[in-house]
Predict the structure.
Amino acid sequence: MDELINQTMAILASGANLLKTPVVNESVKALFSWLKDKFSTKSTKEKLDLVEKGEQSDETIHGLKALITNLIEDNQMLQKELAGKVNPIYSLMENEGISFISKTNRLEVKDHSVGFQDIQGNINFNGKTSK
């Protein structure tokens, strides 16, 4: 399930750019539509709208990660449905040689300690990773 969540978050973090890519446009739209159907709150739908426009913050992405994780955590059917939206996007991207940045987005150096945070929220200091 962690890999599915990480793949979903990578797609969402690049959502606005992927929506401009003809090869995956329809599949990404289908993912956003599926997510909006699963969440009934106005605030969650607004977060997804921000992501679609490319106007999301790190806080927005982390909030969506928690919501999506809670949604599918103990529900095999929803995990399969989400995988059915995410996997075609990755397949299309791989077939067309399309890639997106899915790693480091923040780097800090403090007192001889180097750390970075990837877009999935994993924090790494001197080779030790935490979530």
The first strand starts at residue 104 and ends at 110. Strands lie at 104-110, 113-118, 123-125, 128-130. Confidence is low (pLDDT under 50) at residues 102-107, 127-131.
